[in-house]
Amino acid sequence: MRRTIRRVASHLTPSPLSLPALPRILRRMAQEQPLPLEVAERFFQAVQAGDIDALREIYAPGAEVWHNFDQRNQPAEENIRVIRWMHRRVKELRYEEVRRFEIPGGFVQQHVLRGIAPNGEVLEVPAAVICTIAGGKVTRVEEYLDSQQTAALNG
C-alpha cells in the first residue's frame, strides 16, 4: 500500500491543483495502458512524420479506417500505404489548428492538414477524425473531410 501511495504521490506536484488529476492517474495505474489522448498524440506524430513502423505499432490488428467521401472501410495497412504516398507527394506536411478531446473509448480531433502539393499549390484540408481505442491501440478511425480540397494531390 505504501508503495502505491508513493507511486501516486510521485505523479503529483505539491500544488492543490494536482488533486483533480488523481482519478486519472489511478485509472491509468490500474489499466497500465496509455490514455486516449496519449495514443492520439503518438498516432498523429507518427502520421505527420511518416513513421510507418510506429503506425503499425499503434494500429490494432484488424483496425479499419473509414472515410466520409467514399464511405468504405479501409484496412489499416492500406491506410498506411496512403500515408506513405502522401509523404512522397506533399512537402512540409503538418497538422495545425489541432483541437483534441477525449471521448468514451477514444478521442476526437479537429485539425487543418497543411502542406505543399506536387503542383506547388498550398494544401489546406480541414478535417475531423473520430478514433476508437482498445487496449491502448487504435481500432477504428473515422475521417471526415471534403475530398475536393485534396484534388491538388492528384494534379
Characterise the protein shown here:
- The chain has 155 residues and is of the alpha+beta class.
- It has two domains: 32 residues, no CATH class; 122 residues, Nuclear Transport Factor 2, Chain: A, CATH 3.10.450.50.
- Helix content is 35%, strand content 37%.
- The chain is built from five helices and six strands; from the N terminus they run H-H-H-H-E-E-H-E-E-E-E.
- It has a six-stranded mixed sheet with strand order 2-1-6-5-4-3.
- Strand 1 and strand 2 form a beta hairpin.
- The mean pLDDT is 87.
Quick tags:
single chain; 155 residues; alpha+beta; Nuclear Transport Factor 2, Chain: A; 2 domains; six-stranded mixed beta sheet; 5 helices; 35% helix; globular
In short:
The protein has 155 residues and is an alpha+beta fold. 35% of the residues lie in helices and 37% in strands.
